[in-house]
Amino acid sequence: MATSQAPSLGERLIQPVTNLSDFIWGGTWNGAEVLPFPPMTIVLLGIGLWIMVGLKFYPIIKLGSAFKGLFAGRKSQGEGEISPFAALSTALSGQVGTGNLAGVATAIALGGPGAIFWMWVTALFGMALAFAEGSLAIRYRERTSDGVLRGGPMTYIMMGLGKKWTWLAVVFCLGTLFSALVTGNSIQANAVADGLNELFGIEEWLGGLIVAILVFIVIIGGIKSIGNVAEKIVPFMAATYIVMAVIALILNFGDLGETFGLIFHGAFNPQAASGGFVGAAIILAIRAGVARGLFSNEAGQGSTAIAHAVAQTNDPETQGRMAMLGTFIDTIVICTMTALVILTVRGDFTAGGEAVAHAWQSDRVGFEMTSGAFAAAFPVEIASVPIGTLVASIALILFVFTTLLTWSYYGERAITFLYDRVKGSSRSGEKKLHMAWRVLWCVVIFLGAAQPSELVWRLGDISNAAMALPNLLALALLSGVVFKLAQGQRDAGPTHTAETPEEPEEY
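Structure tokens predicted for Alanine:cation symporter family protein:
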């Protein structure tokens, strides 16, 4: 008699992890309402609104001049490790990843087309949070004994709030390590393995191994090497992807009006069941849009501040603008393009064996949904693969590859901060730790590539919250400093430092 195979540990973990994720982001447990409001959503949007109002809507008013500053950002205008533009490219390479292709599809599957509206709202408030992070990252930077400038939320907590807040910096770093290994690594490795499998038929474990080796070759050179690769790949791949999406939308221009109608109607009304889409209440649309919005643009999470802290500039306001541009480009531009293609392009899709018009109504999930929509827009085949699938898969592989590079540095900074709290820590000890972390990072890429995608995505929502909460508290406490930095006061706020025998020698 045939016996069914016992579920793996990963498969057994899916339900409890899903419950915890749903509670954090939606206030539900086992599908039932526990809280009358979504906790993490309220915190993220609430602090984003507070900073946006305090900045007097600076991110929206100054958006045009921020884009003009992109060209000036290629020149170094102060101390640091990489140019302001390279810092933006590095931050963007961490932001633009699987969230922009698979994450948008997941948001639509969870919350319907209305989730995209809430993703936009998250991005607008996120621009205020990103400005706060980018400006504070330059205002408060630490210097190592050999002259290297670095920073991030752990540094602006220590130098901006003082030693009594060390616990908050430690909690942030623990959350960063959790988020780095899950969202910055396992989810990305999972997605790139799927992309390589779809394109070349490579087994997931082998795809993971190939990517791990390629990532190691780059990250061995540290932040300068990562910034150099990001500066070359990110602008090119983002522009190519946007152009292909625009062409797909022009080809399906007649359906765009209906798409926007679905997004705005779904944001404030329960979705009617349609095809494979079971329907979702408004709260699900909000939960999916905000959670996936944060996953994609990382505003409020504190990660991009680590990249902006190494920019060669002494002007917090200028780098704050660069940081808010990253959120705009990631979500308002790239995520929107993905969403519009998924919701607009018509093709031969099925749901439960019945024909449906659009990829979002079909049985397809995650990246498969995005890939299917692009394949329907560009069906001409090269080596029996539709051009649309080819473009989407190559974009995914490149987006994910650069995300893996950048998040390795974010994790490295977090583990370094924790190590520097240990008595007797030294610069040489830091460098050995960095090497051990880089090896571990590549091992996790290999292991994460073959995990159940539902498990890693849900773990990602939990780890993002673990990283965002301490950072959001710090942003709220330092919001007065942020408002002054936006007015051009470069030395706004107190600076708490004390000489220490460990690295950095002054905190």
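Confidence is low (pLDDT under 50) at residues 272-280.
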